[in-house]
Design brief:
Blueprint (H helix, E strand, L loop, with lengths): L2 E10 L5 H10 L4 E9 L4 E10 L1 H12 L4 E12 L11
Antiparallel strand pairs: 1-3, 1-4, 2-3
Length: 94
Amino acid sequence: METRVAILSIIVSDMDAVPKLNEYLHEAAPYIIGRMGIPYRRCGVSIISVAMDAPQDFISALSGRIGRLKGVSGKVVYSNVITPAEQGREVCIE
């Protein structure tokens, strides 16, 4: 199965959602390249960026699950970088 490189951007305004959000991200750990979280205390939100290399269906499903959490919004930006399954994860093409 082909994988896509993508960025999942998340804004958390209800900190009660954080344990469930972390559970979802933990389940996605094999596909996560890196993650950066910034607490924006002045506005009472946390901003999280998650770089992923995963099947597009998986990324879309994860974004949907995250977006259904109360006080959490998420959007995905997909790159044109695709990793063909037959070549393994070391080779990326555009």
